[in-house]
Amino acid sequence: MSISIAIVEDEKNYNNALKKVINYQDDMKVVAQFFDGNDALKNLPDIAPDVVMMDIQLQDMLGIEIIEKLRKEMPETQFIMCTSFEDDEKIFNSLKVGAMGYLIKGESMDKILSSIRDVYNGGAPMSLSIARRVLSHFEKKLPETKELDDLTEREKEILELLSQGLLYKEIADQKFISIDTVKKHVGSIYRKLHVSNKVEAINKFNHFKN
């Protein structure tokens, strides 16, 4: 059974080139071409292709908006962003709304075809430069262990007790200090771990422990 594909791309030459190469394959077929966002938005739900090749920056709207509006109506369809944009905001907004792949337009047709097969089979294909950006984004998000090293022994003890679910008063009683002192320690913990609440502090602490 062949993979059904819709192309949403306002650059006609690129749209037609994609169609030609895809239709040359035995296992896939272009079932629709759209050259503007409104047309795609109106007609894609009725077609419900297996895969949509989606340009991010269409002349009348963002491809991200189309995915956001159609995702619930088309739960079985996989969206691959195919774009010349590599900025972080567009990448992450695309992934947030449900795109399962992100390809740069300069990719070879072989890479594009293998990405269609990949996403159809449950993968999440990305151009190498995009994958690197995604990884570096998450590396930045990971807390560094030196943050934990900045805590005093008493702060570490209090954070451990917080992670066990103890209340400020229970911690104060256990450590023979006042509740105000506990609160001061907790404020210092938040500052050093760059968090704004107890849940975030405990999550970071558990991450360090693991």
TrEMBL record:
The modification 4-aspartylphosphate is found at residue 55. One of its GO terms (biological process) is phosphorelay signal transduction system. Residues 144-209 form the HTH luxR-type domain. It comes from the Bacteria. The keyword Signal does not apply. Keywords: DNA-binding, Phosphoprotein. GO terms for molecular function: DNA binding. Coiled coil: none annotated. Gene3D superfamilies: 3.40.50.2300. Pfam families: GerE (PF00196), Response_reg (PF00072). InterPro entries: CheY-like_superfamily, NreC/VraR/RcsB-like_REC, Sig_transdc_resp-reg_C-effctor, Sig_transdc_resp-reg_receiver, Tscrpt_reg_LuxR_C, WalR-like. Residues 4-120 form the Response regulatory domain. The keyword DNA-binding applies. CDD domains: LuxR_C_like, REC_NarL-like. This is DNA-binding response regulator.
